[in-house]
């Protein structure tokens, strides 16, 4: 019995160790990838539901790993956050996305292009985050009002004075702010009014069950109306089917993203989508 217990214990320890080694390896690789500019941005179009035009993109980071293949952001953003690598990584994303936006807009005769960039709490908490954004805007020539920073409710709605102050300073640059995955966290209505937010991004989990679950349909409708009454734009995430699109149009949702229109695509393809005007 003792021997069996020992071997179970050993194999458990081996597993733990292997998991840890795997994680350390990934962490090392990620550091190298950042230093050697191996990360890539993909872009998913945002469609104006009134005109069916592509009006902008959300930048989504990708990691083409030399041996493991394409790694999903959900598998490395948490590592980047835990190690602090998210700070330089996030700055690179911001810069690259703005540079692309300016380039595509110029190629399209100056047609405005809205670029959305995801910001994690670790970045936002840097005391010089506003200065970083200002520097990127200046370096790239990106008009501030065409940049949208996406943050989750937990980042935006933490009711500390420092948080609010940081948001106000950011907003003073002239950028827009979106609450990502709206409806999955908890935003009190009072906070929503108090915080300088421009856009609500309706989480994919609601859109997924549009027309299937009456409750989710009602909730989506409520979020769209909430946005309207607060003077905020609404963007629906994760549209995959025509029925969902029709329902959202009917509700008066302003914008949408999702596989129905396009998956996130590499830069060259996104540039073409924008140039073509991409009527959908
Ligand atoms: P998110 O910001 O909520 O981004 C939307 C995710 O949903 C993306 O996954 C996108 O590819 C996916 N998606 C879009 N349309 C559809 C659809 O119709 N159906 C389905 N099933 N999925 C759809 P992705 O690219 O894997 O990114 C996952 C998350 O990783 C993002 O969620 C975001 O939180 C984070 N992330 C991505 N890029 C960055 C970045 O540059 N910085 C930071 N801090 N986080 C990032
Ligand atoms: Ca997002
Ligand atoms: Ca989202
Ligand atoms: Ca999400």
From TrEMBL:
Protein name from the UniProt record: PAS domain S-box-containing protein/diguanylate cyclase (GGDEF)-like protein
The organism of origin for this protein: Actinoplanes siamensis
Residue numbers of the full-length protein present here: 625 to 904 of 910
Ranges for domain EAL: 23-278
Keywords linked to the UniProt accession: Membrane, Transmembrane, Transmembrane helix
Taxonomic lineage of the native organism: Bacteria, Bacillati, Actinomycetota, Actinomycetes, Micromonosporales
């Amino acid at each position: 019995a003792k021997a069996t217990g020992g071997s179970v214990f050993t194999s458990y320890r081996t597993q733990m160790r292997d998991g840890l080694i795997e994680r350390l390896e990934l962490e090392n690789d990620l550091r190298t990838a950042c230093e050697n500019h191996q990360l890539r941005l993909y872009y998913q179009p945002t469609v104006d539901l009134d005109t069916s035009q592509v009006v902008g993109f959300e930048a989504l980071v990708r990691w083409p790993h030399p041996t493991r293949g394409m790694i999903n952001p959900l598998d490395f953003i948490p590592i980047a956050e835990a190690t602090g690598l998210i700070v330089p990584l996030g700055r690179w994303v911001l810069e690259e996305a703005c540079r692309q936006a300016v380039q595509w807009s110029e190629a399209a005769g100056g047609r405005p292009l809205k670029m959305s960039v995801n910001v994690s709490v670790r970045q936002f908490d840097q005391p010089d985050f506003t200065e970083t954004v200002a520097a990127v805007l200046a370096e790239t020539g990106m008009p501030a009002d065409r940049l949208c920073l996406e943050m989750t409710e937990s980042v935006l709605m933490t009711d500390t004075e420092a948080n609010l102050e940081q948001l106000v300073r950011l907003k003073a640059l002239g950028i827009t702010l979106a609450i990502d995955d709206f409806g999955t966290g908890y935003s009190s209505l009072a906070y929503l009014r108090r915080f300088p937010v421009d856009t609500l991004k309706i989480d994919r989990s609601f859109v997924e069950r549009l027309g299937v679950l009456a409750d989710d349909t009602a909730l989506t409708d409520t979020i769209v109306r909430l946005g309207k009454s607060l003077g905020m734009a609404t963007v629906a995430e994760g549209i995959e089917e025509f029925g969902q699109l029709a329902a959202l149009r009917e509700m008066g949702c302003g914008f949408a993203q999702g596989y129905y229109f396009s998956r996130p695509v590499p830069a060259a393809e996104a540039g073409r989508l924008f140039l073509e005007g991409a009527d959908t």
